[in-house]
Specification:
five-stranded mixed sheet, Immunoglobulin-like, alpha/beta, eight-stranded parallel β-barrel, TIM Barrel, 510 residues, disordered N terminus
Length: 510
């Protein structure tokens, strides 16, 4: 048999070992036997290069890199040279826009009249002269919205809606100088979903990527409007402590509601656009996800989102130092855990390169690229791929000559290409004697091929994803115990809508 790639013959396996060995030895610190132990499930060396995988790059807006046409040409040339196939470009940094937004002010640090997102799409999707297509994912920072001393324009979301600001349990409005939107404040979900949908509608993006889709920490979320909503839903007057179980679940529900709404908003206009999230990996998953920091400390339930099908990709921010024994172990543990939690969706392992040597990062990327339960890797970041600036070129040379020696196709998303399920959306209104108001917190029950109960968000909207095709009864229960709602047929790959009106008062809990 002819060998198209050097991985396809025994002599080539020897070449692979020799190519990787210098990378393992050049750290300067040396790697222990534990550091060299492989991830639990690895692809064979024969198949590392040609396997479909994300080879992604996060390109942030806090550094130069895409803010002029010249920088963009350099960036995309860099992507192609290093055989990277997915660009995650930060188009919303702190409530500003590196594109032509209908909802937010233009960023001040890009070339006048320039549209970086449009230019990136044109270059990445250009397949002339045999070039491979590169996916473009519009990276949106959700809740991190400003800095304490920033001079914001009048059309910035915090200037228009100052009540949306997040507060901690002491009333502070910044964490280390960073200001956040409160996930539980009315209007935050509506605004963010509109921003995401606007990009998907008007740009030929391949994905919408949500970052900072979490609370700053356990002490945050004490916006007065959010507190009022919590007290109404849980029928209490108490001031909850940061670790109050019900208060924690309320905050977790707010983040999940935003992810659901963005997913539905994007799929409404372009069903093939992927929605991804930057998944937190604080600490370790060894004692179960519900006991891990992402779930308990910042209220980000990315495992639940995978199960529910309201994300297409979780980009794991698996930022661990290879030279620290506990973090080295955690890096591998999170990969194994995420692969088992994927629920048929994609997992891309985000590798933190900026705080360690090039050799240590290459070792971590090698482990991510070889894992068969996940779907590739992303590097953070383009601006700083190694702790030392002297290693910038060396990092990329090592990556291109080893792991990325040959191009890799992108992994197929079967649930998008040949969908078997659909999405149900709608709005719950409490139809009183005066103006109807949103059914905030009302439970919506879906009975059909898939049974599901979801909760309406602060604007009364509900979203249920990954539902089997067929006929559904969709309803809430009013104060008299009567079902209010309707029926519809959900088709695979489609969205269906059932709005619900409930007379007079808030429904009783089912």
């Amino acid at each position: 048999m002819n060998c198209c790639y050097p991985f396809h013959c025994p002599q080539s396996l020897r070449w692979l070992r020799l190519a990787i060995l210098p990378l393992l030895l050049c750290t300067g610190r040396g790697l222990s036997a534990q550091a060299q132990r492989p991830a639990p499930v690895l692809r064979s060396a024969q198949s590392i290069a040609p396997e479909p995988a994300y080879r992604g790059l996060w390109v942030d807006a806090f550094h130069e890199g895409f803010k002029t046409p010249e920088q963009m040409f350099t960036l995309i040339r860099h992507m192609r040279t290093n055989k990277l196939n997915a660009l995650f470009i930060e188009v919303r940094k702190t409530g500003d826009a590196y594109y032509r937004s209908r909802f937010e002010p233009a960023a001040k640090d890009m070339a006048p009249g320039y549209d970086p997102l449009s230019h990136a799409i044109a270059l990445c999707h250009d397949t002339s002269k045999g070039q491979s297509r590169i996916e473009v994912h519009a990276w949106i920072v959700t809740y991190k919205i400003s800095t304490k001393d920033a001079k914001l324009p009048a059309d910035h979301v915090l200037m228009k809606y100052p009540y949306m600001v997040c507060k901690d349990n002491r009333g502070r409005t910044d964490l280390g100088g960073i200001v956040f939107l409160d996930p539980g404040a009315p209007g935050v979900i509506d605004h963010t979903a509109s921003v995401a949908q606007d990009i998907a509608r008007r740009y030929d993006v391949d994905g919408i990527h949500l970052d900072y889709v979490r609370y700053p920490d356990q002490q945050w979320g004490y916006n007065p409007y959010a507190l009022a909503r919590f007290r109404a839903q849980y029928q209490t007057k108490r001031q909850p402590s940061p670790d109050d179980p019900e208060w924690s679940q309320f905050r977790r529900d707010q983040v999940t509601a935003l992810v659901r709404r963005v997913y539905a908003a994007v799929k409404t206009v372009k069903p093939r656009v992927k929605v991804s999230v930057a998944g937190i990996t604080y600490g370790s998953p060894r004692y179960g996800f519900e006991n891990a920091s992402p779930y308990k400390q910042v209220f980000q339930d990315w495992v639940g989102w995978l199960k529910e099908g309201c994300v297409d990709i979780v980009c794991l921010m698996n930022y661990k130092r290879e030279f620290k024994t506990d973090q080295r172990r955690d890096y591998r543990d999170w990969i194994t855990f995420a692969g088992k939690a994927a629920a048929g969706r994609h997992i891309a392992i985000g590798q933190g390169s900026w705080f360690q040597s090039a050799a240590e990062s290459i070792r971590q990327i090698q482990i991510a690229a070889a894992d068969t339960s996940t779907n590739g890797y992303l590097v953070y970041s383009y601006a700083q791929p190694a702790k030392s600036s002297r290693e910038y070129n060396g990092f990329w040379r090592s990556l291109a000559s080893s792991i990325n020696r040959y191009p890799a196709p992108l992994p197929a998303a079967d649930w998008i290409d040949t969908p078997q399920t659909g999405i149900m959306v709608g709005r719950v209104l409490l139809d009183g004697a005066t103006t109807p108001r949103a059914g905030d917190g009302v439970k919506v029950h879906l009975l059909g091929p898939t049974r599901r109960t979801v909760q309406a968000d602060c604007s009364g909207f509900y979203v249920a994803t990954n539902l089997g095709a067929g006929r559904y009864q969709v309803f809430s229960v009013d104060h008299a115990g009567k079902r209010q709602g309707g029926a519809t047929v959900l088709q695979a790959g489609k969205l269906a809508r059932v709005d619900i009106k409930i007379p007079a008062t808030v429904p009783a809990a089912p």
